[in-house]
Amino acid sequence: MRIFFPILFTMAFVSALIYEAEAASFHVRKGTPLHTIKKAIALAGDSDTVFVHEGTYLETQLLIRKPLSLIGVNRPIIDAQHGDEILIVEAGNVLIRGFRLQNIGVSHLKDRAAIRIVESREVIIDDNILNNTFFGIYLQNSFQCTVRNNTVRGEAYDEMNAGNAIHIWKGRQMEVINNHLSHHRDGIYFEFVDQSLIRGNTSQDNMRYGLHFMFSNYDTYQENTFQRNGAGVAVMFSKHIKMVKNTFEENWGGSSYGILLKEISDGFMSQNTFKSNTVGVYAEGASRIKIENNNFIDNGKAMDIKGNCIDNQILSNNFIGNTFEVLTNSSSNLNHFEGNYWAQYSGYDLDKDGIGDFPHRPVNLFALITDKIPAANMLLYSFLVNALDMAERMFPEIIPENLSDERPRIKPLNHD
Amino acid sequence: MIKIDHLYKNFGRHQVLNDISLHFEKNQAIALIGPNGSGKSTLIKTILGLVLPQQGEITFDGISIAGQSHYRKEIGYMPQMSRFPANMTVSQLFSMMKSLRKNETRRDLDLYRAFDIDQMGSKRLEILSGGMKQKVSAALAFLFDPKVLVLDEPTAGLDPIANEILKNKLQQSLAKERLILISSHILNDLDDITTHVSYLMEGEVKFFKPLEQLKTETAESRLNRIIAQVLKQQNSHD
Amino acid sequence: MINITKFIINDLIKNWILLLYTALLLLATLGFFLLEGQGDKAILGVLNLTLLLVPMITVIFSTIYYYNMYEFLILLMAQPLRRRSILGSLFLGLVVSFGLAILAGLGLPLWLLHPGGVSLVLIVVALLLTFIFIGLALFVAVWLKDKARGMGMALFLWVYFVLIFDGLVLLMMYNFSDYPIGKIVLFITFLNPVDLGRIMVLMQTEAAALMGYSGAVFRQFFSEWRGMLASLLIMLAWSLCPAWLSLRMFRVKDL
Questions:
Q1: Domain B2-237: CATH class, spelled out
Q2: For residues A94 and A146, what is the distance between their CA atoms, to the nearest angstrom?
Q3: Residue ranges of the domains in chain B?
Q4: Which helix (H) or strand (E) holds B97?
Q5: What is the C-alpha to C-alpha distance for residues C129 and A152, in angstroms, rounded to an integer?
Q6: What count of other Cβ atoms lies within 10 Å of the Cβ of residue A338?
Q7: Smallest CA–CA separation between C11 and chain B, in Å?
Q8: pLDDT tens, C102-157?
Q9: Is the dihedral of CA A38, A43, A47, A48 positive or negative?
Q10: Which residues of chain C lie closer than 8 angstroms to B83, CB-CB?
Q11: Matching Pfam families, A to Z (chain C) (predicted)?
């Protein structure tokens, strides 16, 4: 795969050079004979460039069926006036850059999107602003496409009437980079998308998930920020996912998670920050995932690991300021905790090796109680609960005895 | 002045006052005597409105005291035991008392001067000895020049000199148409000023007679002997 | 009434236990902020301390104070004063003195170190708990003439509100966990001012979301201003009811 990419790029570059030689330019401008984009697309030949100049164009269903560059100059606006989709790409090697696309009507029959890419390769969607477009950028059954530097902002007010900002259904080697996605149903939606990269995006204030990720394998997402989404981030039914340097924060709400890991295996999570979430990491049926060098800060529950999670390794993370550190619903534990820093650790380090002299049990009895009886939350921080918890940690009766970090760190690790 | 009419009081099963009827008038110094637990303190507290009787009535100058507080203007009370707020001084106590009864201008500062209360004015009430506290209590009882003086075991903690001062003061008061009510179980202390004796036992008034009459009846002069005689006579009657 | 109140306040503010209590609150509050930093954690520490210490010291001290003042109360009662105003003065004196202790020991440092809504609510809750436990102390002391029994009862009340009540609630929730008990639990919290106070403060912190986890009823109630107002009124009722009952009892009490 690593070799595959450069070769591909070189080929693309060479082919672009060849086309460049014979490419023609068209200028769409208000008040000139060529004043609609539709006409320009029709006139343009393969690999030509259409420049669209400043102004508001009331056009929909612009079908692109040939390799073409569609470039906005001074950010022209294409307004669908609450109607149908705007750009539909059904060809490879298409570039769409510099537009503002807006006002697509909500439809319950069809997932209308501002830009739809159908069964195409090497399409680049760059530097566009999408506003109130139901779905934003919708890629189906496409490969090697890049979506970058776009701002996609919805006006969703409930889940039923909202679309996703970037929606990819079936694809490979996609890149979603540096986009800003907000106020949709899901910020980024991945289903059956393999070997792809999601990097540097900000996904916030979406109704459901910041990132909704299913049946997709060998993907990487890194350096993204997921903030204040209704339910946080969900990564489900997937294998070999790398999750690095992302920030998951302020996902507060009844059933909101920093990240939900469901039925996923062989993943790698490192250097992520989980801050101020109801639950930092919620894992159900997750196995062989390495969770390493992450920061869990000020969450309600830092980790909720269900009993069906097996062989996960939780190493060298910082747990600071969380109400509850680890929660589980099983009295046995098949995961490995080691070398983490736990702010609630009350031990000492007499031999000064930086490792606490006795193990830390991060599971709080009260957390287990509230998990079973949510109403018991009203007793949070009461004297009774504090006393019960202290007793239970000393003489474990209900909490899984072997869920413990044998080598808890005395000082937090610096992960930067 | 004070009329007690068929007074009953029980604390649970324990009958403390059992059909007590007494009538006190001015110019009387009544010695309320009886063994411990005979009901003298309860009777005094009932007169002061501290204990509420189950049955019967007490009138003060013809007006029932039930639910009243105003009549207590005319009563100076010296309790058996005194404890004051620890951190206040003697002079603060007196000025508070005066401020509580601002409208009353009558003052009797004889005891206040005789006991030299001014001199201990800056002392904290906590550090006063028992005798000094009694002096403060006595001075407070007389402070507003009341028509009735109620003293509960007044001589218990007083030194002989103070005792003498108090007795003289009581004698003087008696001459000024006052009513004095003294409860005590130490009998001979009260001989000099007593005009009437009321003997309580097990919540009942065994007798209530002028001292002179008792003296002639028993041919004794000392109070405790008189009482012994009377009790003996009564027992032989039974 | 004002005169006796002033006199009692004067006596109390020179009381070394009250001064020690103020100093302890002050030191502990400062300590939490030094150790835990600025955030919610320090507030939670102060909250825990407040919920434990304030009721305990207040109820025990006030009970003892009543018994120590008993003879003095009798002396006052022998004056031409109404009983109501005498016990009322004692209550007011305790309320003002302990209120000042809370403001100086807890309010001042909290407001300087962490000004804002949560501190305000915490201070108000601490004050209300103080009033409530003074009321309860007077109720116990007027009710029980015997000092030892009164002290025992005061201690029991403290343990009850801080520990036993919560234990019973937890047991109840365990047994009825299959039923929708969200609303009932809400009403149950009204029965314990310590719980109510704790939740009022917690609702101002990040822990609110965790509490909300337990059901919409709870969160909805406490996060709305009307819920907050209702909680305040309930706390006020809690501070007035025992005091009012003790006044009623005192009116017909044999002393």
A1: alpha beta
A2: 10
A3: 2-237
A4: helix B90-100
A5: 51
A6: 15
A7: 5
A8: 999 999 999 999 888 899 999 999 999 999 999 999 999 999 989 999 999 999 99
A9: negative
A10: 68-72
A11: ABC2_membrane_2
Using CB atoms, which chains have 3+ pairs under 8 A with C?
A: A, B
What is the structure's pLDDT at B190? Answer: 67
Q: What's the pLDDT at A7?
A: 65
Q: Which two tokens stand for residue A140?
A: 């189906």
- Alpha-carbon distance of A78 to A100, in angstroms, equals 6
Q: How many helices and strands (H and E) does chain B possess? A: 7, 10
* Residue-wise pLDDT tens digits, B5-57: 999 998 888 888 989 999 999 889 998 888 888 888 899 999 999 999 999 99
Task: State which amino acid sits at residue A311.
Answer: D
Residues of C in contact with A377 (CB under 8 A): 210-211, 213-214, 218
B185: its two tokens: 């179980």
Angle between helices B130-142 and B160-175 (to 10 degrees): 10
Judge whether A51 and A28 are in contact, CB under 8 Å: yes
Beta carbons of A91 and A120 less than 8 angstroms apart:
yes
Mutate which of C3, C9, C76 to disrupt the B interface (most B C-beta within 10 Å)? C3
- Spatial contact of C228 and C222, defined as CB atoms under 8 Å apart: yes
Give the C-alpha distances (Å, rounded to integers) separating A91 from A5, A64, A94: 20, 7, 7
- Spatial contact of A338 and A406, defined as CB atoms under 8 Å apart: yes
> CA–CA separation, A102 vs A112, rounded Å?
12
- Chain A, nearest residue to C45 by Cα: A381
Range of the domain at C167: 2-251
pLDDT at A6: 63
Structure tokens at C166: 């919560």
Which amino acid does the sequence have at A307?
G
Q: From CA B3, how far away is CA B58, in angstroms rounded?
A: 6
Please determine, for residue C233, whether its predicted confidence score (pLDDT) is greater than 60: yes
Of A213, A298, A300, A295, which Cα lies nearest the Cα of A253?
A300
The mean pLDDT value of chain B amounts to 87
Helix ranges (H only) for C160-204 are 165-175, 182-190, 193-202
∠ CA(C114), CA(C117), CA(C121), 5° rounding?
100
All structural domains of chain A with their residue ranges: 239-363+400-416
CA distances (Å), C231 to each of A353, B79, C201, C203, in order? 50, 46, 11, 12
